[in-house]
């Protein structure tokens, strides 16, 4: 076999490779060739990871053209941000109050000591609400200066803590080695806490559901979180997306059409070959307006526009009492081994052959 023929054969092998076949490799930002659909081969694909095969088109919830890539909202859809953020704020408060090295002003110590876990949950929600307003403002006003979500999260946390009397006012350029000024946390601690969004924990069905969906589709984040944040979160949570996209790549935020259309273009797909998966109806409505198919995965306390339920634009609805992404995989035509379906445990990956 000559060198050119060998190179061609290697190229064919890569093109036909399923996204799940490269182990835990995740492509950050750059699409790779999409797999060719081979239903007969897929129907024989029974491994220790699961007997997953596409059903006939009549059994699939989405009719032709079938989606080739599933784009996922992340905050609230894939990860339980509320619990992770509240747990972190609560734990860091207890640590600061009990530390002999802390020199917290009496008034601030009293305020922090009186705050309950639920009240810190209110801080987490206020922090989240600020993020939603920040991204919406940039999405709707192209003249606003670009800023990453990480930058916003740090500024927003400082503002919230100051307004609640837990932090003395500071300039944004305060040195990280600032001597503690009597605030609940010093500047370095605040910066460390502000990146809690990099290490959010997934919902119980997230990791397994993505693994199942990877058998039939490309899976790709499409979040307003910046790439560095998403990369850390994907690795922390063990979410095996085949690609990681961020609104940062398109210099806007959802629901700006540039984000949805840019993601489809970067994957080399038509809009009707793309499907948005989210726990927020406003995100899905914007995706639908740009030609995407839509899957709603209901999550506790996540829906911010319940009135949109009456508009009935969702293609697949996964209810709060269903198993999230695993249920979505079943509705999309994945056949899941019954033994594993009952066990609820995450599947083990097969070791790749050398």
From TrEMBL:
Extent of Basic and acidic residues compositional bias: 1-15, 35-48
Family in the record: Belongs to the HAD-like hydrolase superfamily. S-2-haloalkanoic acid dehalogenase family.
Annotated GO MF terms: hydrolase activity, acting on acid halide bonds, in C-halide compounds; phosphatase activity
InterPro entries, sorted: 2-HAD (IPR006328), HAD-like_sf (IPR036412), HAD-SF_hydro_IA (IPR006439), HAD_sf (IPR023214), PGP-like_dom2 (IPR023198), S-2-haloacid_dehalogenase (IPR051540)
Name of the protein this chain belongs to: Haloacid dehalogenase, type II
Listed Gene3D superfamilies: HAD superfamily/HAD-like, Putative phosphatase, domain 2
Alphabetic keyword roster: Hydrolase
């Amino acid at each position: 076999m000559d060198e050119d023929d060998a190179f061609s054969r290697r190229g064919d092998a890569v093109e036909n490779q399923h996204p799940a076949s490269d182990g835990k490799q995740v492509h950050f930002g750059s699409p790779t060739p999409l797999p060719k659909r081979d239903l007969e081969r897929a129907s024989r694909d029974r491994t220790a990871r699961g007997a997953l095969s596409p059903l006939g088109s009549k059994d699939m919830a989405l009719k032709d053209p079938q989606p080739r890539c599933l784009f996922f909202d992340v905050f609230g859809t894939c990860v339980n941000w509320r619990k992770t953020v509240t747990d972190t704020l609560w734990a860091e408060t207890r640590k600061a109050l009990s530390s002999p090295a802390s020199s917290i002003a009496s008034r601030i110590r009293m305020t922090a000591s009186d705050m309950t876990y639920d009240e810190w949950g209110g801080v987490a929600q206020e922090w989240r609400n600020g993020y939603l307003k920040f991204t919406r403002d940039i999405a709707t006003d192209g003249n606003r200066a670009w800023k990453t979500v990480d930058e916003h999260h740090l500024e927003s946390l400082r503002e919230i803590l100051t307004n609640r009397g837990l932090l003395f006012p500071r300039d944004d350029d305060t040195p990280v080695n600032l001597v503690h000024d009597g605030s609940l946390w010093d500047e370095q601690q605040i910066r460390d806490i502000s990146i809690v969004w990099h290490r959010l924990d997934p919902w119980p069905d997230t990791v397994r559901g993505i693994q199942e969906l990877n058998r039939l589709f490309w899976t790709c984040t499409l979040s307003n979180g910046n790439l560095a944040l998403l990369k850390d979160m994907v690795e922390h949570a063990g979410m095996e997306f085949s690609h990681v996209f961020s609104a940062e790549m398109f210099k806007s935020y959802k629901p700006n059409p540039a984000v949805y259309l840019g993601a489809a273009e970067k994957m080399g797909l038509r809009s009707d070959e793309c499907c948005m998966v989210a726990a927020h109806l406003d995100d899905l409505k914007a995706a639908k307006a740009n030609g995407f198919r839509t899957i709603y995965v209901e999550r506790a306390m996540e829906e911010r526009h319940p009135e949109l339920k009456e508009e009935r634009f969702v293609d697949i609805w996964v209810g709060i009492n269903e198993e999230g992404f695993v249920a979505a995989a079943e509705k999309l035509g994945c056949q899941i081994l019954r033994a594993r379906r009952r066990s609820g445990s995450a599947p083990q990956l097969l070791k790749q052959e050398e």
